[in-house]
């Protein structure tokens, strides 16, 4: 059996010029990054802004196992299947972070015969977007420390600095550091730390901004610190937004690539859904909707994280109106949620499946609350048995929800035809009545309680003193009307990663709250969620190599 990277390297890849031509994009409207990657120019976005939108389909999932459940693979396979049916489709995906690539999950460009290529480029440096975001963020940090060093005219309280440096690698040793320890000429000592690039506010801003002017405004609005007199200091107070935007000039343009079956993909931005809003850029999704009759996109982790933030943050910010939502479910994830151990997920276990199927039910219930048609995609793994798959199908019938078996990992677009046909039929027969789950006018604590009750099924929310103090500060800034971005574990509806299945009536503990003023949302931290992950005992990086001919191996 070939590995993902071997399958990708043997695929027939078309010049990106041809992929663009098939979408009606002129050569003058793309900027080449080699033969198989391109940036889409601002000119094209202006040319087609008045075209009608196609259908917007979101792909989300149940709570996953640590290795993930093939949500991106299913998204890609569905796009390839729609292409096979003769539909004009564009996929809108996130860019992989080097954190998971070298950590536990490995590559994030799909898998098997449903991948985006060139997968080695995409999983590593791609077009340099992550590096540009890292540089822009760290420039702001450098300007802040330099201001303090050069006399601190703004009277910044170095004990109340919120902006942190970032790096797109999992490195737990950098979570908390002290800078400026080299004597008087090398900076004022203060506590600092690193977050992973995809958790940075700059990443969120790039994904939510609509144009360069909006980008600059948002960058200038980043709350970076408070003064000794307790007054807020923003990035614009350091005159940082212009230089930051200049660093992001090319990164702000969406990337055009293709799948193994030459289906067009716009891949742009990559925030995590457990510590950020988890969706690709507004520009990528909006562009895909103008270029095709169907835009298939995905949001990170389970629907309690990525989908909720897609609906309540991204759709609000961009006036997007989704037409349907697909929930990816796997036999192994549902068994895991039913108590089966990771080492036993390959063996048939109907009792564990019965115990864990309520997790799928909770995700279905949650997505229906948004007024959307819901489809369950049963993502097939080679170890699944007929009895297990039939059990999930029967459950979906009982829930009166549409479903389809998806085998896109093994068979590419052909393995997604059933799902594509069910989707097309659903879009023809059912209408979306999309609405967010809470009002922006509600107080901050009330919005958190609505999410905790309606989406996580918690019985109570406990706000620590630290969290309550932070909320009062945000309210004093006049920013309480912003949407909520809850940072929590992806493995559970709760804030406890070990509370699997369908927990109810637990207490959700909010330990801190932070405003991402430029991005335009309020981050609520729960449990022990980290904004700088660590590497596992056996990192995926240990398997990555390159030979004397420049051929990369070990990405999966």
Question: Which secondary structure elements does this structure contain, and how are they paired or packed?
Answer:
Elements lengths: L3 H7 L5 H7 L7 E3 L5 E3 L1 H6 L7 E7 L9 H14 L4 E5 L4 H4 L8 E2 L2 E4 L1 H5 L5 H21 L6 E6 L3 E3 L9 E3 L10 E3 L1 E3 L4 H8 L3 H9 L2 E5 L4 E3 L6 H7 L7 E5 L4 E4 L14 H10 L2 E5 L4 H16 L5 E6 L1 H7 L12 H19 L5 E6 L6 H13 L3 E5 L1 H4 L5 H13 L14 H11 L5 E4 L1 H12 L7 E4 L19 E10 L4 E6 L18 E2 L5 E2 L3
Parallel strand pairs: 3-16, 3-17, 4-15, 4-16, 8-11, 17-18, 18-19, 20-22, 21-23
Antiparallel strand pairs: 1-2, 2-14, 5-6, 6-14, 7-12, 9-10, 12-13, 14-15, 22-23, 24-25
Helix pairs in contact: 4-17, 7-8, 7-10, 9-10, 13-14, 14-15
Determine the strand fraction and express it as a percent band.
15-25%
Q: Please give the largest β-sheet.
A: 12 strands, mixed
The number of distinct helices, counting runs of at least 4 residues, comes to: 19
Mean pLDDT: 95
Coarse morphology: globular
Cα(first) to Cα(last) distance is 13 Å
Structural category: alpha/beta
Residue stretches low in confidence (pLDDT < 50, at least 5 long) are: none
Report the strand count: 25
Radius of gyration: 23 Å
């Amino acid at each position: 059996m070939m590995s993902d990277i071997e399958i990708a390297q043997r695929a027939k890849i078309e010049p990106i010029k041809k992929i663009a031509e098939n979408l009606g994009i002129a050569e003058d409207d793309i900027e080449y990054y080699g033969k198989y990657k391109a940036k889409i120019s601002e000119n094209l976005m202006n040319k087609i802004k008045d075209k009608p939108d196609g259908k917007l389909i979101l792909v989300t999932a149940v709570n996953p196992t640590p290795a993930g459940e093939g949500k991106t693979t299913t998204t890609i396979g569905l796009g390839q299947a729609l292409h096979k049916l003769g539909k004009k489709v564009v996929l809108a995906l996130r860019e992989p972070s080097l954190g998971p690539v070298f950590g536990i999950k490995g590559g994030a460009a799909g898998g098997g015969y449903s991948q985006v290529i060139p997968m080695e480029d995409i999983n590593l440096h791609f077009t340099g977007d992550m590096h540009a975001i890292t540089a822009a963020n760290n420039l702001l940090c450098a300007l802040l420390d330099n201001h303090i060093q050069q006399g601190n005219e703004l009277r910044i309280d170095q004990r109340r600095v919120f902006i942190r440096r970032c790096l797109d690698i999992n490195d737990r040793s950098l979570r908390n550091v002290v800078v400026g320890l080299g004597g008087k000429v090398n900076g004022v000592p203060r506590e600092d730390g690193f977050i992973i690039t995809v958790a940075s506010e700059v990443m969120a801003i790039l994904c939510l901004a609509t144009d360069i002017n909006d980008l600059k405004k948002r960058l200038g609005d980043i709350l970076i610190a408070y003064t000794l007199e307790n007054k807020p200091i923003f990035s614009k107070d350091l005159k940082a937004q212009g230089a930051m935007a200049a660093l992001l000039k090319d990164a702000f343009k969406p990337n055009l690539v293709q799948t193994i079956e030459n289906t067009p993909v716009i891949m742009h931005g990559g925030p995590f859904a457990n510590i950020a809003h988890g969706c690709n850029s507004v520009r990528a999704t909006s562009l895909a909707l103008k270029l095709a009759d169907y835009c298939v996109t995905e949001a990170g982790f389970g629907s309690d994280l990525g989908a909720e933030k897609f609906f309540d943050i991204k759709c609000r910010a961009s006036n997007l109106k989704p037409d349907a939502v697909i929930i990816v479910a796997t036999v192994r994830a549902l068994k895991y949620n039913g108590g089966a151990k990771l080492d036993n997920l390959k063996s048939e276990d109907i009792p564990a499946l019965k115990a864990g199927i309520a997790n799928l039910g909770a995700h279905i219930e949650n997505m229906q609350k948004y007024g959307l048609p819901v489809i369950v995609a049963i993502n097939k793994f080679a170890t699944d048995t007929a009895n297990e798959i039939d059990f999930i199908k029967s459950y979906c019938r009982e829930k009166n929800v549409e479903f389809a078996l998806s085998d896109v990992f093994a068979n590419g677009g052909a393995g997604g035809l059933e799902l594509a046909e069910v989707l097309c039929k659903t879009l023809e027969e059912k209408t979306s009545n999309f609405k967010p789950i809470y009002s922006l006018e509600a107080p901050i604590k009330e919005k958190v309680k609505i999410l905790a009750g309606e989406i996580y099924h918690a019985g109570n929310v406990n706000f620590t003193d630290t969290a309550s103090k932070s909320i009062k500060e945000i309210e004093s800034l006049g920013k309480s009307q912003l949407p909520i971005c809850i940072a929590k574990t992806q493995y559970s509806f709760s804030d406890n990663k070990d509370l699997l299945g369908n927990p109810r009536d637990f207490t959700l503990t909010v330990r801190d709250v932070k405003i991402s003023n430029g991005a335009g949302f309020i981050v609520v931290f729960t449990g022990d969620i980290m904004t700088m992950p660590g590497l596992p005992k056996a990192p995926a990086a240990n398997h990555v190599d390159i030979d004397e001919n420049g051929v990369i191996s070990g990405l999966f």
